[in-house]
């Protein structure tokens, strides 16, 4: 039996700000299908976690957490959900706040969390053989596990979900937060700063990221956010494993959010479209092609490309619905477009999970022309709800969306290579041509219906990685 401890800053269904939570929530569920692997998860106990979950937790242990000259107290709470054991690190000063991120002392908060994880290891009922940490917020847990060796022969895996976010702090923090010999500063420092992500990359036994293409891209300076040299150095220990989704949760045949449920019926999918058109005040016509954007409204998602060509594309007989929040620039832009084209454009500047599912179920096309995209879950969900994705060939988008080929009949979506607005416009127009050519549209829809990105294959790749790790370092 291999005991694996996931360390992360968020996890569905308890707390979520993005795709990290979906992965940390669903991957352990897939791994538990292997009776030789036991997965536990440890998280901060945020104030934002609902009382529904807090009422099911019980106090498991109390620990002292040294943080440099400070000595903080923390409580560990335990909850079992879907046969997975979850531990929550509680500390009023660091985690009893509104929201999850965005505080001036986020670096200190998650260094504390990582240090608390190390102290908690000796209290866990199943001592882990592998500590699997996710993103910068858990990066120091990997470094401290290797430096302090709280469990003999403990192996470490670190997963990069988005290399752009690194947890960077002034180098002076090393003396302030860590009672460690000065020689360890080299493994934590990068470009004159203390860097939580780099600390994990330096110390981890194995490094994974969330798609094979992204694993290649981040070794290039354009995508590597300054860390490509260390990733090139660690290339032999770096592997890309594409994310999956929970296909029991994202299932249009059983999804309680949908007014009309379906498996693959376009007629029943069209009924969802008509209801959304009525709800949002668009022209009601089930035969009109509907394009959706469900996204954080930030530059990474390729929204500057959309800005350049959106009005040109709206000259076509199409509709577009945008759901999300983000930068003022994009929120204002889509609000203006909805005001100027009320029959064609709707903009909902919010994030509403229930509405998002209705939009996936209503959409003919799902737009995701990202500047970079480590994996992306939205295009996988779109495929599950039988919406055709339109993406740029980067990261996990390239690995999961195969461009439609009229000659071979292959492909489950549309894509373009260069980060260029007119390339996006060309592929949007091409998608519209295919939509209005029934024999070709039927082919691509058949391919979409066959697309499935459950965790089964990816979980097996993680199992093999854990096996390789324990054998290699035995």
Describe it.
This protein is α/β, with parallel strands linked by helices and about 475 residues long. The chain contains 18 helices and 18 strands. The protein folds into two domains: about 1-245 and about 455-470, Rossmann fold (3-Layer(aba) Sandwich); about 265-450, Rossmann fold, CATH 3.40.50. A nine-stranded mixed beta sheet has the order 3-4-5-2-1-6-7-11-12, with helices on both faces. It has a six-stranded parallel beta sheet with strand order 15-14-13-16-17-18, sandwiched between helices. Strands 8-10-9 form a three-stranded antiparallel beta sheet. Helix 11 packs across helix 16 (about 420-435). The longest helix is centred in the last third of the chain and has 17 residues, at about 455-470.
Core attributes:
single chain, 474 residues, alpha/beta, Rossmann fold, nine-stranded mixed sheet, six-stranded parallel sheet, 38% helix, globular
Ends apart, CA distance between termini: 15 Å
Sheet with the most strands, sense and barrel status: 9 strands, mixed
Integer count of domains: 2
Gross geometry: globular
Number of strands: 18
User: Which bin fits the share of residues in helices?
Assistant: 25-40%
Whole-angstrom Rg: 23 Å
Pick out the low-confidence regions. none
Order the strands across the largest sheet as they lie in space. Answer: 3-4-5-2-1-6-7-11-12
> In percent terms, what proportion of residues is strand?
15-25%
Quaternary form: single chain
Q: Tally the helices.
A: 18
Name the CATH architecture of the largest domain: 3-Layer(aba) Sandwich
- Secondary-structure-derived class: alpha/beta
Named CATH topology of the largest domain = Rossmann fold
In CATH, what is the homologous superfamily of the largest domain? Glycogen Phosphorylase B
CATH class of the largest domain: Alpha Beta
Overall pLDDT, averaged? 96
